[in-house]
Design brief:
- The structure is a single chain.
- The protein is of the alpha/beta class.
- It contains 20 helices and seven strands.
- Strand 2, helix 5 and strand 3 (about 95-100) form a beta-alpha-beta unit.
- The longest helix has 19 residues, at about 155-175.
Amino acid sequence: MKHAQLADLLRPTDLDGIVGQQHLFGERGVIRRMLAGGRITNMIFYGPPGTGKTTAAGIIAKLSGMNFYKLNATSATLSDVKEIIQETGNLFGANGVLLYLDEIQYFNRKQQQSLLEYIEDGRITLIASTTENPHFFVYNAILSRSSLFEFKAVSATDIRPVLMRALNYLNEENNARKCISGDVCNYIGHAARGDVRHSIVLFENAYHAADEEILREHVDSFDTSVGNFGDDTHYDLLSCLQKSIRGSDPDAAVFYLAKALLAGELLSVCRRLQVIASEDVGLAYPLAASVVRSCCESAKELGMPEAQIPLANATLLLATAPKSNSAESAVHAAAEAVNAGKGIDVPRHLQSPLFKGYKYPHDYENHYVKQQYLPDDLLGSTFYRPGENKNEQAAAEYWKKIKG
């Protein structure tokens, strides 16, 4: 028996069988209440792998009576979508089509725009899923026509009944009477890091390694690190990457880059490198942001393993570049003033051409003229302080000379 088969055989067939997502499918869960009211809308599910997104889509399709089709955006194309439309054209007036598109973040902007056509004219109802932040990777027009639902990592307590079902199933299949304690069930749940599918894989491995009782040592015989990249590990690795770059250690930086990429974190790495370019290098080397952006776009287009190369370029560029956090410090200082309720009344001559008094700097020598820009209650405030680097010091000297 293949590992994937057991997870499929144990897949829930109704909402009550979905574990760990009480906020969505519990007695007062929002999706359960929506379905009870006969409401089927376009949906985007986001959250870690193995938390029930695909299962939920299939159950929703079953309850709605719609014809269910599933595609994965890592390998599917718009031609696959069009083929589904053509094959089911005679069904639109009856039950309609529910398309589940897994990993929608791998559809580029053009593909998502084309998909929008089928959503708007009602030929399909879309349920898309992603392990990434949908606000970063899903086209805004699709977001505006969909409801977003977060799937959370499943606790060890909620995984436990799934493992007991797996135990009963395997005992019956193998005519055996093996057992497992609650503590070992919890151990498997924790080892799977919230991924129900991976917990079943771990359990099945341990089941076949055990004689009568499944023990922790049987679980430890297998690599429990494979599977969902847990939240703590995820943020720890990205934090190590950023701190190594900030500390100008290229060897450590490229090590954590490789470790994160091999854990499947390509998109998260791209986001973090772009943050670092502005947060830690910033105005000390302003072109870093453009170069890193280009490397990240190239990496996403190439995919792994080739994506490692442009991302290594970006990482090493940032690690060896001069550093400045002056921009980040400036915007945080300004935000504190806003949050403190300051600057509510801005100068009238800045608000509109109708309010006279604004001086157009380009009409003056050196494109500069002294006038008030900050609100009255913030006059004299200094949010930006130039960093001790060549670029910012040169700019500071220039404006010091111009402004006298």
